[in-house]
Amino acid sequence: MSDLQRSKGIYLLPNLFTTAGLFSGFYAVIASMQGHFTAAAVAVFVAMIFDSFDGRIARMTNTQSAFGAEYDSMADMVSFGIAPALVSYNWALSGLGKVGWLAAFIYTAGAALRLARFNTQVGIADKRYFQGLASPAAAAIVVGLVWVGSDFDIEGSSLSWLAAIVTLLCGLLMVSNFRYPSFKEFDWKGGSFLAILIVVGVLVIVSLQPALVLFIVFSLYALSGPVITVRSVKELKMEHVVGDNDDADFECDKDKKDQP
């Protein structure tokens, strides 16, 4: 089979994981409509797990395809664009009227723009960084707040303005030019005993209070983007924050910064 034929194929295994992620996102919407907000939030995190595996499985089995890439983007839009916005809206934003649904819409639009921009930069952008907050991380923050509120029996209406601000900011961060580490350059195969211990320790900490820990971790990751961006440029400009820009501008400014 030629490479051209392979690239146009439809392969079962990776697309099954993509479908499972899509189902998890859809289930999150249904669960939130029925008032099961913990289940809805967990479903989005489950979708993140499936999303992290489908691409890796496709590369491991040499079953990458144009269809799989497009299907993955559509599934991500549901799981990390529409689902978090509706979960947050059903939990807290509906009581804010127009402000609530506008915040949810801005988040959804931000996710769509983030995914579209990512697809156009495949093979061009610096693999060490994401341009803008990745949609799964943004989704984790939005539904993480919902999960924390549900765990501590906090009514969404009492945190409606906080939920609106968090949802709005996550939507804006996705379309920003802030640089976020992608961890794609990390050598997962060359692990050590210490690395294994660290992973075990992280899992233990997460298991103690998963909702709160995950919300804090992803929130800190969201804050890391502006910090990394500010430190990587000599002079912060508007194009480093939002607008048309590419990674070359950051690298150029970084080189200038390193000059004596």
UniProtKB/TrEMBL annotation:
Tell me the superkingdom of the source.
Bacteria
Q: Which UniProt keywords apply?
A: Lipid biosynthesis, Lipid metabolism, Membrane, Phospholipid biosynthesis, Phospholipid metabolism, Transferase, Transmembrane, Transmembrane helix
Identify the EC number(s).
2.7.8.8
Q: Which GO terms describe its molecular function?
A: CDP-diacylglycerol-serine O-phosphatidyltransferase activity
Which EC class, in a word? transferase
Tell me where the transmembrane regions lie: 12-30, 36-53, 74-93, 99-116, 128-147, 159-178, 190-206
GO terms in the biological process aspect are: phospholipid biosynthetic process
UniProt keyword Ribosomal protein, yes or no = no
Q: Which GO terms describe its cellular component?
A: endomembrane system; membrane
Reactions performed catalytically: a CDP-1,2-diacyl-sn-glycerol + L-serine = a 1,2-diacyl-sn-glycero-3-phospho-L-serine + CMP + H(+)
In which compartments does the protein localize?
Answer: Endomembrane system
Is this entry keyworded Repeat? no
Which coarse location class describes where this protein primarily resides? membrane
Q: Which family is it part of? A: Belongs to the CDP-alcohol phosphatidyltransferase class-I family.
The protein here is known as: CDP-diacylglycerol--serine O-phosphatidyltransferase
**Organism, scientific name:** Gallaecimonas pentaromativorans
